[in-house]
Amino acid sequence: MSEWEVIVKYNGDIEAVAKELGIRAEVLGDSFAILTLPAERVPELSKFSEIEFVEEPKSLSLSMRQEMSDACITPVHTERVGGYGLRGQGVLIGVIDSGLDYTHQDFRDENGDSRIVYLWDQLGTQNPPDGFFSGTEYNNSQLNEALKAPQGSATPNLDFIGHGTAVTGIAAGNGRASGGAEQGVAPEASLIVVRLGERGRESFARTTEIMRALKYIISRAMALNMPVAINLSFGTNDGSHAGDSLFETYINAVARRWKCVIVVATGNEGSAGHHFGGLISANQTMKADFTVAASLNGLFLTLWKDFADTLDIEITSPGGQSSGKLRPTDRVRQMNLGGTNVAIHYRQPTIYSRSQEVYFQLSGNPVTQGIWQLSITGRIVRVGEFHIWLPTLEEVGPGTAFLTPDPGLTLTLPSTTPNVVSVGGYNSMLRSAAEFSGRGYTFRDIYVKPDLVAPAVNVRSTRAGGGYDTFTGTSMAAPFVTGAAALMMEWGIVRGNDPFLYGQRVKAFLQKSAIMRANMNHPNPTWGYGTLCLRGAMDYLVEYNG
User: Fold this and answer.
1) Tens digits of per-residue pLDDT, 477-509?
2) How far is it, in rounded angstroms, from Cα 135 to Cα 369?
3) Predicted model pTM
């Protein structure tokens, strides 16, 4: 049983807390103390009112072990009685992200050869994959040659950001760089990696790149005749959040194409202040004030409502210049408000959605800083529900936000897609919700999202350039579930226990086994069906296949 030393800020009698827990307390003075206790008992500290804050230990190897234990993954790895001995053999894990440091020891096997079967660099300039027109594809042999070449003489760095390397380490790192201490969920899985292109900053450009990446991974998995779990830690606010865009419809179709599971992070918009929602009635006016930070050259707002409702909308700049009331019959309006160009598009329902979007594009050099206002007036109202989103934190930073935001419905696209497994994040140390985690459900509560949550705060994983570091965000929660899906498919498909264990069937068992919070209804918009518990899913699979 491993023990941790944790630093606590406390009030009152910390010695009494330690005595009740049967642990040791070292008082440092000024209401600080060090508590030494078994790792699995750290979450109990949050139950004591005397404990104001807990700082988790810096013991790096223990960090991942704690999260793996919380997600009930460790007993699924073990070969001992009661374990399943699953490590990802015969299964592919696909990662669509910023790339991968393919030289990292955790992505090589015991012979030092690459575990990456294929890597498609969408930013590459030669040798695209069959059926595609850009990028560079590397196969396993080429990567092994690059690993043996003198440093800097062959394949270039394929993850300058480091995000994709961290994500892949959680899902599938084998811990070779740490002597086996820092293993991911599926340490023996094979890898297919797509480094996303950056043809533009617009959401449309990025979504098309993801669509290409999904097609590529599924096609390669089919050719290899291997099941695949795909991780996508990408999100945008540009859409209805109802799962009905063409982008999401395509992902739904891809999710049915092969023996696959697609896992998507819900994003980090929970506390960003980028969503404003309301229920308006006829002749009522509601105002959505939002701040624009300095040095932004452009941003959008997207308002979604029921097409049956007729709303008059007015936008006002920080200097008081107004667009006047805009009506649906205006279709497209362009104007300059205080030095900022404003374009407004009233769009119509599509074959996929009966909702209506009003899209605002603000551009300038820069956009006027200060408080802007959207004024919404109900003219003909039958439903009354409307939602407005600003771009994500990654696009506009923390200084652009609504003054009175709604933290609900802050999950990003494509986690709103019905057939994917949508993963939010929680703090496994404190067993509390991560305030940044995107929350559901979806527009008009069509679908329950997120599906479940996984560890997302100070998660230990592989670092681009070698070694390990800690990372925070729902991007780190999703690969726990991606790796878990891979292990489930190893048991079901590779070992022949359940040949149809993929797609929605995997999601169903993950939801059924998710650990629910006490005194809380599930599913709910923050926790979904609960926290990931892979051991529980495996036990249910054995029970239902018995």
Assistant:
1) 999 999 999 999 999 999 999 999 999 999 999
2) 38
3) 0.86
